[in-house]
User: Fold these one by one.
Assistant:
Number 1:
Amino acid sequence: MFLRTEDLFTSFKKQYIFKLKAYSNLFVSMIIFQVLGILLSLAHLSNMGSSSSYYSIDINQIFTLPVIIVSIAYIISVSVCLNLNDYKNIDFIYTTNRLSSNLSNIAFLVTFILFSAFNAALSSIFIRIIDYTILGSSNIIETGFFISPGELLCSFYVIFLYILLISSISYFCTTLIQKFEFYSLGFFICLIVVLYFVSLTNIIRFYISESSLLVFSFKVLLTSITLFAISSVFSNDLEVKL
Amino acid sequence: MNLKLNKAVLTVYIVILIAGTIFYYLIPENNFIKTSKPGVADFEQDLSSLSIGELSKKYSIKDKIIDYSGTNLELVHPENARVYLSRKDTDDNKIEIFSYYSLHCIEGIDFSERLKAPEIQLKDNRLKIGYQYLRIVCTKFNKDFSITQFDKSKADGITTAPSNFSYNSDIIYIKIPKSLIISNDNRYQYIKIKA
């Protein structure tokens, strides 16, 4: 029993601000991971070329994908950690319930994803600048080097959506494991069987083969909101800390 | 203190990224390796219709003039180079050699202009033409899936590159004095390019 009552929004707001401050280390860690991703991109992991008796041409190909991959990997671990008991118990510093705790978690995740997506999109530009500074324009192929502001904005938005989708899936899975602790092994066996019949590639293709940004946004947002909502409902049933 | 330090790190990192982005949009587009060049079909057509001056504007061309007063000459050159001869109207004791580089295209990028002029040696009535070895290393950026997934041109299967890889043998055009005898001239085709 608490000495005073607080409405849901006030409670959510306090927890959200508290989490932003308490987990500020996560933002710095994300930067470290993204810098590693930038270094991986600069490592020229792929090349192609042609040669004859009087010339050889080597083309080093640079992909900015490593930055996005490390960002996604780190976000998955953050989504899982936020749902662990040690992290959840921090919420009880304030007057709280499971719903406000979940909402603040989701709001924190969305903020963190926005930050990561913004940095990942700008990192692709930063990688280009580093190579431009080192190699000079005469050694860089124009095609693919220049990204219009519209493409950059699109890149930021799409990275945000992809990370949001993966984050909601990992958050949902962690909630399920916590709720059905004793049945989690059975649950994952069922999940693997279902995925085998539905075919995982079909599910992935449902998102990655979509060429309309509007439809893609709708698919991702609908899936993420649904998964977060189910996670909130499930975790509402978890035991209350006294 | 820790929070302040974290805020400082985040601020510095974001400022670097934003400043980098501003700098990026100020980079001039010239000097980069470009893609558009005519293909070999146009080149063959142009060879018979354009003048040397016009060809040099449109294609990568290297030329050299050698003094030669002998009556016989043997030509030695790389097998993959097509050699065309042209007999001048006068005996000016000068051999003019023009090397045209046609399409050397990889991933839609034409490297023809970077190829060096061939090495030419004249010794014992033998004109030896050999290409200088050239090594080109360059960098290509690939736009990631967050851009290409919604790129209509890629979705429709349209690419701006003419082909993934194409290479055409080079052409050497030699103008010889009127009376000069080429010892193995049955191998060559005589043409006339406008002066």
Number 2:
Amino acid sequence: MNNRLKELRAKHKITQKELAERVSIRRETIIFLEKGKYNPSLQLAHDIAKVFNLPIEDVFIFEE
Amino acid sequence: MKKSVYFILGVVASLIIGLTIYLSQTLFDLKEIIMLIALSLLIIFALFIGVRKIISIKNNEPTEDEYSMNHKKLAASKSYMISLYLWLGILYLNSNSSIDSEILIGGGIIGMGILFAITWLFYYFRGTNNE
């Protein structure tokens, strides 16, 4: 699973720390997500997508 | 970045301590030195985890979250599986060597701790993607 977190953060001018605070997770988790080293739960993916006002599939790209 | 520096400093310190003790072998024999180094590594790992938590508290972020819990559970399950082979080896040594059972059991428990630390670090650097 890929994601557009870094790109969307830059677009919305949100730092990793701010995003982490808004979804109540550690900044380290955002780093791992951006590096593609961790696939989030559906709940976390939903929360992150909500921050950017986008549907989940626009933030997280599922590969078959 | 800070965390990595703390970890590297810890490893260097343990190596220096281990080497110093090894060079002054009049106090300890080899078995004791190995046990001491293993215990030092475990203490350093515990300190590393503690420092991470303190940094999280200072930064007003949760000490545990979805990723850290998954990471911990994965490391624990894998290290438990590997430790079964460690205990198998210890059982073999118990019946085929002259090493005391107390030392073997102590070594097994410390070994389990070290295995957990190693698997935790492995998944820390590799990530837990699709696990």
Number 3:
Amino acid sequence: MAFVAVQASPHARRRSRLGRAIGLTLLLAGALAAVSVAAERIGIGAPWIVGTVFAASMTFLAGIGALTGTTRPTVFFLAGRALTASVAGCVGAAACLPPFWLALGERSTDSLAVFAIGATGGLVVSAALVAPFLHRSGAYTPAEFLAARFGRVSRVFTVPASYAVCLFLLAAQLRIAGRLAPSFGVTPADAVWAMLGLVLVCCIAGGARSASAAAAGEVALAVAGILAPLAVLLAARFGTLSPQALADALAAAAADGADRSAGRSSAFAMLGYGLALAPAVAALPGLCNASLFARGSAAARRAPAVALAMLLPALAGVAGWVAVAHLGPAGGVPAAPVPSASTLLDMLAAIPATAQLSATSTALFVAAAAAALLAGSASVLVAAANGVGYDLLNRTLAPKATRSARMAAARLCLLATGVAAAWLALDPRLRDAPFGHVALTLAASVLFPGLVIGIWWKRATRPGALAGMAAGLAATLLLAVPIADLAAAGGLTSGGAESTPAGAFGSIAGLLGALANAAATIAVSLVTAPPPVERQRFADDLRRSVSRPLLHPHEALIQSHAASSHIGG
Amino acid sequence: MIDIARFLPGRRRADLGRQAHFRRTAILAGGMLVLWLASAVGFAVQLRMGGAADVAAVAFWLVAPLIALAVFDRLQARADRACGGGERL
């Protein structure tokens, strides 16, 4: 009788690994919470408890990154194209965190609503118009896809623009780490370098694979760390877990004249800024990476929905904490009023004191914030290193480099980009530089139209795309200052580090740049000769359901091998 | 009903299938964008007109695109399978 070995399929194995990664993170968070509650009971000081929980959670997350190293370029740059929709969704959620942090740098709670509209729109646009088709292209980076569609010369625009977007978003996040640090007795410089060190540990061993594996844990910890202490606080203060009780208390406080919401904008302005943010989010290199890392076009299409499902609870939780900050410790108007000039970030940093949180809740809250910063920073750092390491070095400057040389160059890129971003974040001359604003504007005006038109209109030509990118960049540069003045005059401006000149969400310039880009692309394409037949066929094939990547078909053969050793799929 | 495509030559039939798949993909993507726009308008108007005090109403407009994305995913997967594609997740 023949012996048949019954073995779990690789698909089931990968799912169980993902479940283990997220389950282990939540288990760790629960265990840390239980231990810190016990420590609180026996009288150990709050700083010790907070410090220990923070150190343990960061060591765990950095450990995931450090232990998932690789020597294969496909895995380093693309996570082996093996992520399930769930893990790719975590990577997508991490990619959306930089704009989330920028929203918290604003003074008005309207910035959270703008983020909700913009991030939702960006993820919907990505799922419907970009992600599955970008995945089918088989490109390593969005710039490689655009080079395949519009010719290598397009890299003149796309590689610097992608890199600038990532570098500026990383610098903005490191600066936020520096701004939060003094609330916990740490100097900004120490916080920036410590955060950079953690991010590098998470990324340098395995690149995209390490960052993706860590992203699942980071996003899970961030959501749990935001929601669990809020639930405890709601139960203790209102005797219910329903957020409606918090909303009612806030409404009552507002009726008493305690409404300190700054700069309330009209529904039209809120909608306009949200719509302007959507293309920027859809073109974020980190979000494009999530679709490129996915194990199939269906997983790439589903990943934005998973990302949205993870972002919404976090967003609701942060809105709840902002309401708590407005209410103060006893559920009424705070004894020490929230200064109207303070940003949402300042309010949240002061929450442990103003809401009189227990040491355990404070520890989870701090760990969640650090995990969210870590996830967002790792996402943009990997995208930046992929852009320089793959697009510039591997495809342009040294296409015949050996595998080990390519890996060494990519790791060097990670290190150099991180140090450059830290320098930008710490330089006092750049204290008010609007890094986030510039990054979102560049993503919307230079990258987004090329991606969408390149996928959906096969008649688009190389001269058209180049003219469009040039027009988008020029329009952005020309319009940035007048639009900034307009934004400063009418609504969603901030008092935070991102307030100059237009706030993180003064990205109307990006929307106008995107429209200029699209108009120039279409106009020039129509007056130039149609693209070669093979490029038109490439565009056609993008929209067909194909099983192998179009640009690197040989990699489909090694995909299953790479996938079998991957933590998340 | 007679399936006229069965009587066409293979290449022509494949072309028709591709065109139908493209049309269906474009319609689904357009529908998804329209639904998102509607939910964004609803969310902004709810926040300004109704205020944030009605948590369920605000949450509805936030969650609506997520539900629409789930439905969109199913329909697109069905369209991909109908043209001979489709992948496991």
